[in-house]
Amino acid sequence: MGMFDFDGNGHTDSGEQFIGYQIFKDVTGSGSSSSGGSRRGGLDGFTVFIIILFVFWLLNQICSLLY
Q: How far, in Å, CA of 45 to CA of 57, rounded?
């Protein structure tokens, strides 16, 4: 059974090799397809945490000026 033997017939044909290569590209993030799946411009958890912390600090400053 080959590494990319998706139909289990004991042989890896060119179609199965191509599908395996596409899966490899999708998983590793290599390739230049812009059809989705990539997180360009996305925010990670740390950035969201910093933004929330800044907003909390800003609201705290505003409340301390008002009260």
A: 18
